[in-house]
Amino acid sequence: MKMIITPIFLLLAIFQSINTIQTSGFIITEATIVQIRAAFKQNTLTSKELVQLYIQQIQNLNSTLRAVIELNPDAVRLAEVADQERKADTTKSHLPLHGIPILLKDNIATKDKLNTTAGSYALLNSVVPRDAGVVKKLRESGAIILGKASLSQWSNFRSRSAPSGWNARTGQAVNPYVATVDPCGSSTGSAISVATNMVTVSLGTETAGSILCPASANSVVGIKPTVGLTSRAGVIPISSRQDSVGTVADAVYVLDAIVGIDNNDAAATTEASKYIPSGGYLNRLKSDGLRGKRLGIVKAYSLYGFNNDAVTLNKFEKHFTTLRASGAILVDNLAINNFNQIASMILNGVEKALLVEFKIALNAYLTELVTSPMRSLADVIAFNNRFPDLEMIKEYPQDYFLDAQKTNGIGKPEEEILMNLRKASTDGFEKLMIDNRLDALITPNADGSLVLAIGGYPGITVPGGYDDNGAPYGICFGGLKGSEPTLIEIAYGFEQATKYRKPPPSKSSIHLYSDA
Questions:
Q1: Which CATH superfamily is domain 11-508 in?
Q2: Catalytic one among 2, 17, 48, 105?
Q3: Which tens digit of pLDDT belongs to each residue from 154-187?
Q4: Active site residue 318
Q5: pTM for the whole structure
Q6: From the candidates 164, 190, 193, 210, which is the catalytic residue?
Q7: Catalytic-residue membership of 287
Q8: Angle made by CA atoms 253, 141, 66, in degrees to the nearest 5
């Protein structure tokens, strides 16, 4: 998690599909869960074939894009089991994610043959005690864990100088649209793998921008849920106050599968469970979802996440026209009362809070590992010092680690910082939303993500188009806690009205033609 003005989310997705299933076979490019399940039903595709196709795509692209760290050696076998269950017409085979391969960001624990390392050699061959809470729910839904996606090492919380998408195990991830453009955030591999059709669905995590930002930069939909709506248990942490888990591609299906109470993250998931709508989220995919929605646009603040300068706003004017034409009510030029004071609270507090929380949370995570030489942040720092070339310490110093190690828990100064961050949220974002009766706040790209992050609010980024050089950009809709149903309606309505999403330049598409 770089200290950038962006959010953290677990869901990155593609709502629509450009290509369709052909009668002569199945096209993997841009395939959605709905299309895959239809192909399963029509016997033009098996889970085994799908897994093999994705493995082929990863083998073709990953040496350049560095989006995947490991493949699950049991993925094909698990796909064969799914095919057998479908043939036997088991109850499980009718679940929406049954037989669907999913990549997980490499900070999400799996109790299998895969490593969970946050991109660092320090945790290689460590053994986790159990599946992460979201992984347990995915397995119960019939999903197949395909492997681990790359990330910015330690979720971008090791070095202030390391670029987004870099980790010691895979090197630098590359934006598939324009190689010189920042892939952004820390869930880079999750976004890139979906954008390039290496997988249908991928999970990421966010503390402050690590889902929304890579979604915007790689032309996929990213959903950052309300903190606690999805379990963080078994996720290599930064902050229990801000961390969230989300998905890339077909996000709403995955959100339905992974929300809910987890006893290993009981306090947060129990509190947030009140926001889960009866009947789930899929029925919120409404093509007219923008009708009557009040959407806010803040005036041109140049700091702290609201980079709505005249040039940027002009670039998004066509989107505002589309939103109005689709029935939305835009409330623009909004002012944030006491903006300078609120911004100062955020600027002076967010990093200090994360440093303290990171040490506490990481030590707790490492202590619980079944097998690992790393039992504390101090152990990881010592490992890096022993193997500076392996972890590229000279190029990317471990300054976040060293600063976090100096902290001594949450005392009165830290409590005051946390109180100020809460006050910044309630007096800033919440007051803006409530006073103006807004359903969502619009920000270019993922520019409002830090504001969403510090308060635990949800956000969804949707592809907004491409610059003259072909680099993607997105538009973000943020809301109050528990507003996912409304945000999904807004985001889906915008996506259906625009359909900007297109795959990156590619030499060829991968097709599967079945004899069935």
A1: Amidase signature (AS) domain (3.90.1300.10)
A2: 105
A3: 999 999 999 999 999 999 999 999 999 999 989 9
A4: no
A5: 0.90
A6: 210
A7: no
A8: 70
